[in-house]
Every structure is written in structure tokens, then in C-alpha cells.
């Protein structure tokens, strides 16, 4: 870098340095000129701050779970995520002030049992699997243990609140009584066809509807994106010729080895791994008896086909084919590779049981010829050269973009790859190859979306790379009246028709309430009343909105049903009557069921208690979410 600076310096170096000093002063005095400083917090909870880098990590992780978070219309979701982060930081502050600490033994226990079986092999914690899983997730043990420790500390107080909440027998009885309650009900459904269609709205009526429902007529945010797509498969490189391949072969021929292989057959006498000594003894005795028959002259293949417990090889007369080292269990391998051609082993114990092995042929280790590895060499050398050319191209692009991060045309020209423009497209419906969460995330960054900078390198699949820049941005706005008039007519007419149906249903409800039931209305409207006896809260054969509102309705009094109205959909309403309420049967609740209900109620109450606790903390501590920095 220093040499590059020297190469570019001229007699005007003083002016360049002065210019840099001025820019640094502007950045210091007016940080917003350059955007948010890396030191400005995104969230502040008391004295605890969430830096832009920390926020970006949280945001990126959340995008992996919910890619829509990176779309254009994500302000509300960002705020919800920021509030969750603030709540977590709030609990960290409280835990620190309360002096809550975590013992190393507790942390180790949590790690070993994390996620049930995440770090376990055969039911036991595996240090190797632990490291493998962390590396796969891009984590170090120190980072994972720090995050887990912090999480456990912040959960201590809320969980303690929940675990100490009492749940009385009366609460259990009341819950079950309500949960298992049933209601007898009847209902009538009415659709748009049951009321006349309203008159068409004139322009003044349409204009009023348009003004009242602007949010229904918003245009999609549109972007014109230029992008540079570098495909590994399209990279030009020097194709290996015969001399190249032979040179590489001579350099590496000691590594081109056909490992020793052995052709074997076996007979398995199956014995369970956890079998007792008596079962082991019987298994060994049977294997020895089979071996005795073979040594007495019986054909090995015939005995294997008749007696072997290995379903995979039994039909092949015990044939296992060619075997290399590392394929079979250690004991089997050790015995087989100690044998000579034609040998038959003594019984060999493995986890499957006892094996009698016949070694039929040995193929010794040998170097592969050039012709044997030619295709492999050609493919490997071509890939090596392609990857090298690809990486050199990425390096040139990185250097060009570092010099001028606000244009792609120059870098594209320098690497002879065409620059593509998408034209104006909806931000939430980008065409390929832009329709990925990674591109959506890149486009959401302020430097790209607002300032017009080129994005960082975006990986596409395993081998390709993409850079994007926004050429033009049309933000979401209310579409002009004349442009949406046809859609307005449809929506306004549907809305008016729905309102007419709702008003008519309300009138019918008043009429039914006057009569005391739905019978007269059913006769007048020539409709059939649907009758449902002993309906539970989770019944499937009755429209959900009817069940929901029927269980909200007051109990019938003096033998008179309770009537109500409910909207099933924009094109259908229903009137219902509840004639009987039957409480859940507590006599069917045994001790185990009561304990399960008690645990359920404690969990539900715990959640409410914890939320109340968080609400109280929010009032006690100064919390600031800087929305413009999200």
C-alpha cells in the first residue's frame, strides 16, 4: 500500500494531504455527511450500547431466518427486532446489577445438553462433534460459550419469577372447565347474493373512497439495478495440454496409488452388542461349529448361504467383494489383512457378532499409470488454473472498486465482463440472479440504497460472485387517481356491497332477537338452519369465526338462547344462537392430567409475569432506539 501511494504521488502531494485533512475534519464535525459513524450506537439501554457492527450481525442472522426482513418494506420488522434486542440488553443490565454469575459447572452442563442431542454421539457428549458443529456455524468455542453464558444469566431472573408462581387446584378446575366446555348452537349464513348490489359510485364517491384508502393504492418501490456477475465457469484460462499433464504426473506420481485390496467372503453369527456372557458363548460356539464343518470339507460358499446371519451378503454366498483398509470394523480388518490367499480365519468378534472370514484374492498396492489418472489430472489442473484466474480477476475488481466504490462500468470493462441493467423492477420481486436473500440484504444497506455505492461482493452459489449498484430508485408512493380508477371501481363496489350485507345482517339480527330465535328469519329467507350440538372450541366442521364468537357470547338465560352476528369473510356473514352451555367434566381429570394442566398454566402465567416484569423494567431504564440507524 505504501509503495502504491509513492507511485501515485506528484508535486501536488501537499494539496492532497491538506484535502484529506479537510475531509477528516468534516467527518468529525459533521458525521452525518458521511453517514452513521461506527461509534454511534444503534440502541442504547442505560449505559449499555449496541454498535452498528453488533446490530448488523444480529440483522444478518435474522435475515437468514426471515429473508423478507431484507426487503424494501421492512421498517416495522426492523423495529420489532430492535425492540427484542433492547429487551435482551435490558436483562443484561439487570443481571449485571444484580450480580448474577454462572458457575463453570452449570455452563458445562448446559453445553453438554445443548439442544438435546446436538453435541452428542450415541447419547454421550462428544468434544469432536462439539468443535465440528461450532466450526460449521462459524463460531469459536469462546464466542459460543460467552453467548450461552450471557443468555443463561439474562434468563435467570425471569425464569425464577415463573418457577415460583403458584397454581391452585381451583385454577386448574376453572381452566379445565372452560377448556373442555361445549355449547349447543345453531346458525344461518348469508352471502352477497342475499342483498341487492349497490349502485355504482360516481367520480366523487370514488374520490372519497380513494382518499380514505390511500394505502391500498401504493406503488411498489422500484429499482434499476446494474450488476456485474462473475461466473467461475466462464473464466478464461490456459487449458492443460498433454505436456502439462505429464509434467504434473511426474511431480506427483508417488501420490497416485492403488491401495492394496482384498477379496473376501464371510459368515456372520449375529450376537447383540449388549448380549450377556451366555449369549456370547453360544454365538462363539456356533461360529466354531461352522468353521469345523468347512475345515472338514464343506464348501464355504454353501455354508455361508445357508447359515450366515448377514442379510446383505448371504444371498451372494458370503461374498463381500473387494475391500480396502478403513472400510470394515478394526477387528475384522486386522484379521483379514493378516491372512494369506486361501486362508480361513478363526471366529473374529465385532459389534455385529462373530465372523468366519475367507480370503480369496489379494491385489497388492501399485502406482497408477499416467493413462489411469489422465482424466483426473486434466480435471484437477483445469480447476486449479480456472480458480487461479478467477481469484486474480476478483483481486483486480477489488482494487478497482476500492479506488472508486461508486461505479461499476470501469471495473467491468477492465475484466471484460458485460455489465447488466435490470431496468426498473419491483424491489420485492427481483429477477434472477438478483432474487436472493443475500442480494436483498446488500440492497438494504444505506451505502447502497441511499448513497448509490457498489455493494460488497455477494457470493452466488459456491463459485460465482455478484456486485450490484442502484442506478435509479423510485420509492413507494400513492398511485394517481386516474391510474387506479378501474381498480378503484372494483374495490369500492366490493366494499359497498360488503357494507350493505353487514347492515342487512345487523337488521336481521335485531329481527331475530325480537323473535327470540332464528326460526322465523329462516322461514322468511328460505334458508336452512345448521344445528350443532356439544360443539367444542377446536371443532373442525363449523366455521371458525362462528365457533370463536359463540364461545365469547353470554350464556343463555331463562331458557332463551343468546344470539349474535359474525363476519365469516368479506362475502359472508352469519347469525348464530347459543342455547346451552355444558362445563368440562372434572371427574375425568386424573392426577397426571392435573399435573400437566398445572404445568401448562404455570408456563402461561410465567410468560405473562415475565412480560409484566419487562414492562416494569422499560419504565425504570432509559431505552433509546435510533430508528434512522437501523
Strand content: 15-25%
Shape: extended
Q: Report the uncertain regions.
A: 1-37
Percent range of helical residues: 40-55%
- Total number of beta strands: 19
The N- to C-terminal Cα distance equals 34 Å
Structural class: alpha+beta
Number of helices: 22
Biggest sheet statistics: 4 strands, antiparallel
Radius of gyration: 38 Å
Provide mean pLDDT, rounded. 86
Please list the strands of the largest sheet in the order they lie side by side.
Answer: 16-5-18-17
How does this model look, in words?
By secondary structure, the protein is α+β, with helices and mostly antiparallel strands. Among the domains are: 32 residues; 136 residues, no CATH class; 119 residues; 111 residues, Chitinase A, domain 3, CATH 3.10.50. It has 22 helices and 19 strands. The protein has a 4-stranded antiparallel β-sheet with strand order 16-5-18-17. Strands 13-6-15-14 form a 4-stranded antiparallel β-sheet, covered by helices on one side. Strands 9-8-11-10 form a 4-stranded antiparallel β-sheet, sandwiched between helices. It starts with a helix and ends in a 5-residue tail after the last strand. The N terminus is likely disordered.
